[in-house]
Amino acid sequence: MGDRIARHAALAGGIACGVMLLxxxxxxxxxxxxxxxxxxxxxxxxxxxxxxxxxxxxARENLALKRQVDxxxxxxxxxxxxxxxxxxxxxxxxxxxxxxxxxxxxxTADGEFSLNLHSIVQLDTxxxxxxxxxxxxxxxxxxxxxxxxxxxxxxxxxxxxxxxGTNLRRARIGVxxxxxxxxxxxxxxxxxxxGVENAGQLYEGWAQYSGLDPLKLRIGVFAPLEGLADQDSxxxxxxxxxxxxxxxxxxxxxxxxxxxxxxxxxGDHWLASAAVTGRTVGVINTGSPTGxxxxxxxxxxxxxxxxxxxxxxxxxxxxxxxxxxxxxxxxNISGPPAAFATPVAEVVAFSDQAELRxxxxxxxxxxxxxxxxxDEEGAEFAAQWRGLLVQSEYDRFHVQxxxxxxxxxxxxxxxxxxxxxxxxxxxxxxxxTAAFDAPPVSRGVGAGGFGVVELALRYADMxxxxxxxxxxxxxAADAIRGGDLETWSAGLxxxxxxxxxxxxxxxxxxxxxxxxxxxxxxxPLGAQIGQSFNTVAVRSQLAF
Length: 544
What we know:
Blueprint: H1 2-26, H2 34-54, H3 59-81, E1 95-98, E2 105-108, E3 114-129, E4 165-179, E5 183-190, E6 201-212, E7 215-222, H4 244-253, E8 258-266, E9 270-280, E10 300-312, E11 316-329, E12 347-348, E13 351-352, E14 364-365, E15 369-370, E16 373-385, E17 388-400, E18 410-421, E19 429-430, E20 435-436, E21 452-466, E22 480-495, E23 500-512, H5 518-521, E24 531-543
């Protein structure tokens, strides 16, 4: 009996020794001794096995000891198959910084949190070549109005001599990144503008959840996905500004600085999105600047888009898409009907500058249209083969008026443009926006290369006339004389590297527009207040 107790004590001591060796191997501070720890554990297991074999005559008492030995063997095997952690590896909470692609980037080692610094600065310098302005009584070039036919918002002089000079078209700075893995964020401010720079306002500020792959949910202030020309970054546009039809379509219920919530999903060759939108931050929906009186109710609209590249190869693709917007409730800018003798409670207005914004004069403009609802539908097409890209969009707008006895107006616009990368690269197709980004610059100036050179051409037409009538005639009761703007553009882009771009662009602009109101516009009845002119512009761009 005493021998058995002694043998059991020896076995217990051996097991305790093995456990102590295992604990020592599992918690050693010096990670470089991993192999030595495993060897010690294996020796302990071998010793225990020998002792168990010596006690084979008392199997029942040794059964529990055998199980403990098996557990130790399992732990040793796990140690052998688990890679040792380097003593120099950073803990998950440490930060790593980089400048990949010229973008300042900071992230935690586990990728759960990150921050990227972004900026776009575009300085435009332009000259407008018009006929010399004559006496105001005979030179009938006019523009306006934004909200209604009043002498205070009709431009009877500036459109006669458009502004030569410079303009910071965009001056944006902001951050984006990840938070808690499945969440993303972005915050951007813009100090640029059309014709005159802004004092600075919120351009984007949103949070996004991406844990329902491939679906993503975004809410805040941003530009919902609306069309092919609606690229994520204006730094990628082949010409200085979007075509007028695409610009009006995106601003109808989507566009920049829009308060919205959107759900969207994308694969390698498809995209689908749906958004509910409200007002634009800093402006009422008719385009008045910050500081204008608040609306009595904000607009409510819905925006959707479907796009796909069903035909594609290694160096080519065909893109098709459709998009639509429904304005369920225009903004109320006039208040309760009882407060006004002839109220116009809810209105929409369509307008645009030329496709160069050094001068911000609104050349085409419907003025205020009383509206119960309004809608916009568009179709997209693009074809890319290597460095050659052709794309086009058509948009149609319709307004359901509240006034009785007049027909509902509709307007339409379209464009076709092409770009050719002369240095052989191809514009990158961005599946997350279903649009084409700028071509990649692998060897830029200063890195042993010349950069990337691209040629771009465009024809665009936007017609904001409805039952305009003939020259010299009074407008009908349902007439809208917003004007018909045609623009031919040619541009040459030089991407010196991934952050610097220089662009040269020329335009020929032809505007046809009959005077909406002879008294207000100070013109003869139905006079032609359009014009033709040419422009030359240079853009210096910094974007990262």
